């Protein structure tokens, strides 16, 4: 082989050198440890309950129509009795008695005071509700005698598939 052919062959080998420097291939590593990555999330919620409390009711209002009508009827009846100044006393006594009787008849079924009634009261409060959520896995694996750690979104199992890149070291 002459010198010129050797130079051409050397130039071709040197030009192909960058393509031969990097090589990627797939291999498997042995999984040593898998640690789930968990975060705590607070999702507050409302808790409500119903309590029954005693409430005093106000006394109902009494009617006055019976007392007025009774007073008029009693006054007219008293005016028919007696004479002179006795007639005025009889009219007044008749009006008072008629008013009392009319009031009792009008308000016979009305209680004098209010009662006690149960009323429902809703009580609510906010309570913390903590949930655990898995955010991924910290995977430690062994490849060719060295341990490596990587975060992954899934548990790879007993072995992990690796992409290996081989590159020459720079001086």
From TrEMBL:
Pfam family, one: Rick_17kDa_Anti
Keywords recorded for this protein, A-Z: Membrane, Signal
Record domain Glycine zipper 2TM: where: 65-105
Superkingdom: Bacteria
Cleavable signal peptide: 1-22
Annotated Gene Ontology cellular component terms: outer membrane
InterPro entries: Bact_OM_lipoprot/Surf_antigen, Gly_zipper_2TM_dom
Subcellular locations according to the entry: Membrane
Predominant subcellular localization, coarse grouping: membrane
NCBIfam families: PRK11280.1 (NF008437)
The protein's name in its UniProt record: Glycine zipper 2TM domain-containing protein
Organism name: Duganella flavida
């Amino acid at each position: 082989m002459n010198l010129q052919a050797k130079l051409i062959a050397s130039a071709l080998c040197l030009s192909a050198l960058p393509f031969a420097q990097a090589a990627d291939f797939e291999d498997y590593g042995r999984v040593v440890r898998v640690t789930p990555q968990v975060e705590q999330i607070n999702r507050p919620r409302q808790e409500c309950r119903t309590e029954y409390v005693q409430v005093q009711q106000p006394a109902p209002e009494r009617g006055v129509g019976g007392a007025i009508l009774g007073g008029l009827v009693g006054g007219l009846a008293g005016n028919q009795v007696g004479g002179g100044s006795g007639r005025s006393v009889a009219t007044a006594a008749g009006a008072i008695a008629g008013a009392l009787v009319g009031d009792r008849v009008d308000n016979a079924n009305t209680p004098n005071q209010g009662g006690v009634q149960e009323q429902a009261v809703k009580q609510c409060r906010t309570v913390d509700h903590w949930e655990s959520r898995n955010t991924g896995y910290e995977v430690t694996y062994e490849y060719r005698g060295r341990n490596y750690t990587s975060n992954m979104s899934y548990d790879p199992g007993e072995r992990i598939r690796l992409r290996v890149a081989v590159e020459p070291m720079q001086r």
